[in-house]
Structures are given as C-alpha cells and as structure tokens.
Amino acid sequence: MVRLSEAEWKVMNLLWQESPRTMMQITNHFKETTGWTKHTVMTFLRRMEEKRAIHHEEGEKAKLYYPDIKRDEAALQETEDFLDKVFDGRMGLMLNTMVEKNALSKEEIAEMYEILRRAEEIQRRNDV
Questions:
Q1: For strand 54-58 and strand 63-67, is the pairing parallel, antiparallel, or unpaired?
Q2: How many CA atoms lie within 13 A of 31 on its CB side?
Q3: Among 3, 36, 80, 120, whose CB has the most other CB atoms within 10 angstroms?
Q4: 115's torsion region: left (phi>0), alpha (psi -120 to 50) or beta?
Q5: Which CATH class is domain 1-89?
C-alpha cells in the first residue's frame, strides 16, 4: 500500500475532490495556504507518481493529474498504521483513551453507536 506524507495527503484530497488537475491548478490552489511554489508541487507530483498514488496524461497544454488510489483505501491504510504505531493495533484501546480524556462529543458518540450497529448487522449477515 502507498504511504503518503502530510503534504501528499493535501494533494490527494484535492485530486479526489476534482480531477484531472494540472500542476499549475494544484500550485495555485495551495499557494496562499502553504506557500508552495510550482517546483515544490512538481516534486510532490513526481514523488507521488513514483509511489503510484497518481498518474498523468498529456493534455493539450499541460499534464493532467489523476488519483490512482481510492480515498477509502488510503484512509484504511493510514488508520491501520496509526493504530499499530500508537495503540498496538487495538481499536478498543484508542476508544477507551478518547472516553477517558472526555474527547468525544455527544454527536460523535451517537455516530459511533450507529457505526457499531451497522457493523453488528454486517457480522450477522456474514455469519449466516
């Protein structure tokens, strides 16, 4: 699986929102918030192509960049890496830490209940 840096995540999120994009469109999008120059963006794009996270096609005037990995696949890999590194791969330990630190809002708790209800339903269907 592809491991993305924080900056590469920003580029991927932009490409997942709308693609294709040119190098200059990406540069212009991030110029004010990050200060990235076109050379910085070119480096990111080259690195991301080497990782096979994106690819380009030749456009009429510029290369057009497309994502090659799906957002949910990248998010799952990132989540698994984080859990392994910080919580020894244990989701329960992470959630317990969040509860003990009172870090969850009522809305987040309700959302988790709904997610767990769906997970139970999927498990029941798979057990049949």
A1: antiparallel
A2: 10
A3: 36
A4: alpha
A5: mainly alpha
Query: Tokens at residue 45, please?
Result: 């794009």
Count of other CB atoms within 10 angstroms of residue 127: 6
Q: Which pLDDT tens digits describe the chain residue by residue (128 residues)?
A: 789 999 999 999 999 999 999 999 999 999 999 999 999 999 999 999 999 999 999 988 999 999 999 999 999 999 999 999 999 999 999 999 999 999 999 999 999 999 999 999 999 999 87
Q: Where are the domains of the chain?
A: 1-89
